[in-house]
Design brief:
This protein has 518 residues and is mainly beta. Helix content is 5%, strand content 42%. Strands 14, 15, 18, 19, 21, 23, 24 and 26 form an 8-stranded mixed beta sheet that branches. Strands 3-20-28-27-22-25 form a 6-stranded mixed beta sheet, with no helix packed on it. Strands 4, 5, 6, 8, 10 and 11 form a 6-stranded mixed beta sheet that branches. The longest helix has 6 residues. The protein starts with 23 loop residues before the first strand and ends in a 17-residue tail after the last strand.
Length: 518
């Protein structure tokens, strides 16, 4: 039967080969030898790992609950999130210390419509400060949840904003300066789904947890007993040797519908994935970070770096079993030699098994067109260049909360050129906006990168030209962030700040490295 696979009756524990602590990593890169000096940083050289064919899919996929909300007298939809410590049994009877929102691990899925005003009352019951950043959301800087909006232990923060962007799969997670990797890896993350009339008119699968399925993918380490433990660290950051999906180890999903819509979120802190199907059928991509594409795109795999999202459609036949896998290769990652081997670019994973019922609810044919993409026109008000290096800096500067790196005039279109000037893995995320890619490596972007994006994987020695429109929300007092979304890199200082101001205005925080790029 199509997609059927044989599972081992007694799978061996999934463990990555033991690594050796080193004071430096030496990587053979295109054009020369790159020496990475990490004395005393705890860097290890994890070896390649594969769980393909070794996962005994024996646990039903957990579906994060929909967040409860109420509508206030003024029409505002109000949610409540509590950041809390707890324990989670990833293995029955073996508790692991975890953090979560409104529970022990991860958080509920928030859902809102375009045009709604929302407020999220965030309470912090942890014993240390944290934040909640609304990743991919267009909103005022003071509501963004970056490191300038810390929530102290015992305090409550209640950001409020108007949802004014297309239907999309967004997410939320902490953003404390220097501690983001730790807070996210402990379990503080969740989805924030937006809907609108254009999406509904397409008739896409829309019953949450039934035919519209969240797939939050994280890598981690486990002891032989099944207790969650720290992952080994490469240059990219912590790389686990096993996956969790929605917090579930070894998951399967029972499908009663012929057509499924999977919302993929790479919630890992460092690992990138190349999602593909076990029977090599094309992956049918319909949406990226900021919403639906103009038309579906069929691909051999979908590459997602940390923070990126993808919406895919998959059509099942009665009784079949189909496995979602990640089959990353150095070629897909754009990495070479030991850089690829020690940063997850030679790793493979069985992610999730789909089990189709013997009788499936029929679905209409997939749409051939989705939502129109607006033209990339308009006068470019400024050109900016962002160079990512191997010292956890952007444009030669580490993050400084007391410095504005870029000042942007509201209601303008800018062209941002982002280049990874190394042979090493990086990514780039911009707060507040969804951007379009004008060029990748000097040519037009591939179809899978033609839609709205807020996070991109930045291949080595490659230029990415972003068209970024800053429509509104001027605030000279409060900045937004741009940064590498490999969270250890971000924590080490690979981040900058930009302020959006009215014409002729300057930011109140001192301005530093570069501005007035006309």
């Amino acid at each position: 039967m199509l997609g059927t696979r044989t599972r081992p009756t007694s799978p061996s524990p999934l463990r990555r080969p033991r690594a050796t602590l080193v004071s430096g990593l030496t990587a053979l890169a295109a054009g020369g030898l790159v020496a990475l000096a990490f004395a005393g940083c705890g860097i290890v050289t994890p070896g390649p790992v594969s769980t393909i064919g070794r996962v005994d899919f024996d646990r039903p996929l957990a579906i994060p609950p929909l967040a409860e909300s109420n509508v206030a007298a003024d029409g505002t939809r109000v949610f409540e999130l509590t950041a809390q410590a707890g324990t989670t049994e990833f293995e029955p009877g073996v508790p692991s210390d975890t953090w979560g929102f409104n529970g022990g691990y991860l958080g509920p899925t928030l859902v809102a419509d375009r045009g709604e005003r929302v407020r999220v009352e965030v309470r912090n019951t942890l014993d240390e400060p944290t934040t909640v950043h609304w990743h991919g959301m267009h909103l005022p800087a003071a509501m963004d949840g970056g490191p300038h909006q810390m929530v102290a232990p015992g305090a409550t923060w209640a950001p409020e904003w108007l949802v004014d962007q297309p239907a999309a799969t967004l997410w939320y997670h902490p953003h404390p300066h220097g501690e983001t990797e730790s807070h996210v890896s402990r379990g503080l993350a969740g989805l924030f789904l937006l809907h609108d009339d254009a999406e509904r008119a397409l008739g896409l699968p829309a019953e949450y947890g039934v035919d519209d399925v969240p797939v939050i993918v994280q890598d981690t380490g486990f002891s032989a007993e099944g207790r969650r433990e720290a992952a080994q660290r490469g240059y990219a950051g912590a790389l686990g040797d096993e996956l969790l999906v929605n917090g579930t180890r070894s998951p399967y999903f029972e499908a009663g519908d012929e057509l499924l819509r999977l919302r993929l979120l790479n919630a890992s802190t460092a690992r990138s994935y190349a999602f593909a199907w076990s029977d090599d059928r094309p992956v049918r991509l319909i949406g990226t970070d900021g919403g639906l594409l103009g038309a579906p795109v069929e691909l051999p795999e979908v590459r997602l770096s940390p923070g990126e999202r993808a919406e895919v459609l998959v059509r099942l036949t009665p009784g079949e079993r189909l496995v979602l896998q990640s089959r990353m290769t150095p070629e897909i990652a754009g990495l070479v030699g030991p850089v690829a081997q020690t940063n997850g670019a030679a790793d493979g994973f069985d992610v999730l098994e789909l089990r189709a019922a013997d009788r499936l609810r029929a679905a209409a044919a997939d749409p051939t067109a989705l939502v129109p993409m607006p033209p990339d026109d308009g006068e470019v008000a400024a050109d900016r260049r962002f160079v990512l290096d191997d010292s956890f800096e952007i444009n030669g500067h580490a993050m400084d909360l007391g410095r504005i790196d870029e000042t942007v005039t509201v209601d303008t279109l800018e062209r941002w050129t982002v280049v990874n000037d190394t042979a090493l893995p990086h990514s780039f995320h911009v707060h507040d906006v969804q951007f379009r890619l004008a060029t990748v490596g000097g040519g037009p972007p591939p179809p899978e990168l033609a839609g709205w994006k807020d996070t991109i994987y930045v291949e080595p020695v490659t230029e990415y030209v972003l068209l970024v429109r800053f429509a509104d929300y001027a605030d000279p007092d409060t900045p937004y962030m741009y940064h590498c979304h490999l969270l250890w890199h971000e924590d080490q200082g690979m981040m900058g700040q930009f302020a959006v101001v009215e014409p002729g205005q300057r930011a109140t925080i001192p301005e530093g490295t570069d501005h007035d790029h006309h």
